[in-house]
Design brief:
The protein is mainly alpha-helical and 407 residues long. Helices cover 73% and strands 1% of the residues. It folds into 2 domains: 3-44 and 66-210 and 249-405, no CATH class; 215-245. It contains 17 helices and 2 strands. Helix 3 (55-72) runs antiparallel to helix 14 and helix 11 (250-265) crosses helix 12 (276-284). It is globular and about 55 Å long. It is a multi-pass membrane protein.
């Protein structure tokens, strides 16, 4: 394999898998299946498996095993086995990414691929908002997804792109990344994704915990709060319309209840991965809600529970949901402990990783994707790319060569 190909194939994969996330085309299916299999093949060729058996590896292996057992006893066995294979391929791709990202240049190229995908998506959203196709909600709010047909997923990609653009700013100290952040933030607002905007706010909050609570910080926070209140009073109608608060969480609450009821009826192995869309309607028709609301949900389809923990419990059982929680807790503790141990000059980097983790975690209370969701690589890859960046960061941080500083 040529040195150039070896250097670029993973960033190219990440970029393409993101920007084609909602292509309804056979090309997308080839990209999402053949490219990962190629990466896994490269990973396995000539490898001597000497990696340590860490707690996350054990927990992930247990999670995969539970997915397999659940699939064998699922509502639709073949459908669940298909999603099991997707999850298996997903984690093998992440293992391959860790193996590939063995120097600083590859680390930077990976970050840049995510920033570039955010740039393409944000431009498409802004164009779509003014010149293309938009979604008009019942409350009158206008939302745009650009090249993504799902505006919430578009918002999530932009949230991640903002964090990674700031990470590039920390690494390179180039002001153009602030322009990217402003562009991404504008596009994020146009998506109207409340969960992703909340995730960004949580990430910013936890990142700024690195500061001591000085008078300057207090003044900035109080001033921001006052301006926010003033803006809300002046533009209350428009803000409420954009946030779609009149609708509340009623539709999501129904999906939560469906997931919880399924988990209660199938607590051990769930209904199997990917079967919520078939089983969910049987529960929906029994609920004492209006026919118009039932039909509205059925027209869209019950694709998820809009909560990663509820959906996991419904599809692979309470044990599977418990293992997922343990995976998240273990990774979160690793992030937090690194903050306590690193040199003060590196704390910005690790607080940003910690903030991103908390933002994704909060978002997963309202969306099912973002960590592990049936091997949906377009949405779930960021959480694990960030974990790989974290694991590899120690060896990059101790390097201080001229080659790296000039790259």
């Amino acid at each position: 394999m040529s040195a150039i190909f070896q250097k670029y194939y993973f960033p190219v994969f990440i970029f393409i898998i993101i920007v084609t996330g909602y292509w309804d085309s056979p090309i997308r299916k080839i990209i999402s299946l053949v490219f990962p299999l190629f990466i896994i093949g490269v990973f396995f060729i000539g490898k001597k498996f000497t990696s340590r058996t860490t707690t996350p590896v054990i927990l992930i292996s247990l999670y995969i095993l539970i997915c397999l057992i659940s699939a064998l006893f699922a509502y639709d066995v073949f459908n669940s086995l298909f999603f099991f294979l997707r999850i298996l391929i997903f984690f093998l791709v992440i293992a391959a990414l860790y193996d590939w990202m063995n120097d600083y240049r590859k680390y930077i190229l990976t970050i840049r691929s995510i920033v570039l995908s955010g740039l393409i998506l944000s431009i498409s959203i802004i164009y779509s908002r003014f010149f293309g196709t938009v979604i008009v909600e019942n409350e009158g709010a206008i939302r745009a997804g650009g090249i993504f047909s799902n505006v919430n997923s578009a918002g999530f990609v932009l949230f991640i792109a903002i964090i990674y653009a700031f990470l590039m700013y920390l690494e390179k100290d180039k002001k153009r990344y602030w322009l990217y952040i402003i562009l991404f933030l504008t596009a994020l607002v146009f998506t109207g994704s409340r969960a992703s905007m909340l995730a960004l706010a949580v990430s910013v909050l936890f990142y700024n915990l690195r500061f001591k609570l000085t008078k300057k910080i207090i003044i900035i926070c109080v001033s921001s709060l006052l301006f926010t209140i003033l803006g809300f009073l002046l533009f209350q109608d428009k803000i409420l319309s954009a946030l779609r608060l009149e609708r509340g969480l009623s539709a999501r609450q129904i999906l939560y209840n469906i997931g919880l009821d399924i988990a209660a009826d199938y607590p051990y192995l769930g209904i199997g991965l990917g079967n919520l869309k078939d089983v969910g309607p049987h529960y929906l028709v029994t609920y004492p809600i209006g026919e118009w609301q039932k039909n509205s949900i059925l027209d869209i389809g019950i694709q998820s529970s809009h909560n990663v923990f509820i959906e996991t419990a419904a599809e692979i059982g309470l044990l599977g949901a418990g293992v997922l929680i343990l995976i998240i807790i273990n990774i979160g503790l690793r992030y937090y402990r690194r903050i306590k141990k690193v040199d003060p000059s590196d704390k910005n980097f690790y607080y940003l990783i910690w903030g991103l983790f908390m933002g994704i975690l909060v978002r997963c209370l309202f969306e099912s994707n973002g960590i592990i969701n049936r091997g949906w690589i377009t949405a779930d890859i960021y959480f694990w790319v960030t974990y790989v960046v974290f694991l590899r960061s120690k060896q990059f941080k101790i390097k201080n060569t001229q080659e790296i500083s000039n790259y």
